[in-house]
Amino acid sequence: DGGITQSPKYLFRKEGQNVTLSCEQNLNHDAMYWYRQDPGQGLRLIYYSQIVNDFQKGDIAEGYSVSREKKESFPLTVTSAQKNPTAFYLCASRNYREDPTEAFFGQGTRLTVV
Amino acid sequence: EDQVTQSPEALRLQEGESSSLNCSYTVSGLRGLFWYRQDPGKGPEFLFTLYSAGEEKEKERLKATLTKKESFLHITAPKPEDSATYLCAATDSWGKLQFGAGTQVVVTP
């Protein structure tokens, strides 16, 4: 089945640790996105990438890092510099170059700092 | 700076009571306006894409419209299963896809 897969679904991190969230898509989409969602709030853009080996900061990139070595994959690392990382993280992908299409979302990763 | 603003933050409706949600945007070079529905603990589910002012899209009890400055999502005769958070998003010429904070809709029987 075509789709976008995020793993793990739940993740627990100790303070001071880096953790990496996985996002894989088999939709052959050019663009991929990472968002953070806090309780009762909308989606805030962390990073996005339109082509392999290139990415741009979103509105809240501090404390996060990404890579785009393959078209299908866009992992997000939450570093120890992110002071309040507990949140719901969503990855999305879409075609962009011609008429921009809608983004398809994964089911999310809920990260909790313990 | 690009901004997407949704209002109201929350909306409580009786079943059958129609209403509208607003999404205003200030995005340079808008290339598309999207509406999504999100249920608790899940990823957003796509509803509509609007590309140009004057465009309208309809699906069951939902209708989305677009002007040069804002978009509306009209909910006609809502049912309890329409309860969700409705998100709008705008995309620009550079590929950025920016969301509003959402409107939480509760429809009571």
What do these coordinates show?
The complex is a heterodimer of chains A (114) and B (109). Chain A is mainly β and 114 residues long. Helices cover 0% and strands 49% of the residues of chain A. Chain A is built from no helices and eleven strands. Chain A has strands at residues 4-7, 10-13, 19-25, 31-37, 43-51, 54-57, 64-66, 76-78, 87-94, 104-105, 109-113. In chain A, strands 2, 4, 5, 6, 9, 10 and 11 form a seven-stranded mixed β-sheet that branches. In chain A, β5 and β6 (54-57) form a beta hairpin. With 109 residues, chain B is mainly beta. In chain B, 0% of the residues lie in helices and 58% in strands. Chain B contains no helices and eleven strands. In chain B, strands 2, 4, 5, 9, 10 and 11 form a six-stranded mixed β-sheet that branches. In chain B, strands 1-3-8-7-6 form a five-stranded antiparallel β-sheet, with no helix packed on it. In chain B, a hairpin with a 2-residue loop joins β6 (56-59) and β7. The radius of gyration of chain B is 13 Å and the shape is globular. The N and C termini of chain B lie far apart (41 Å).
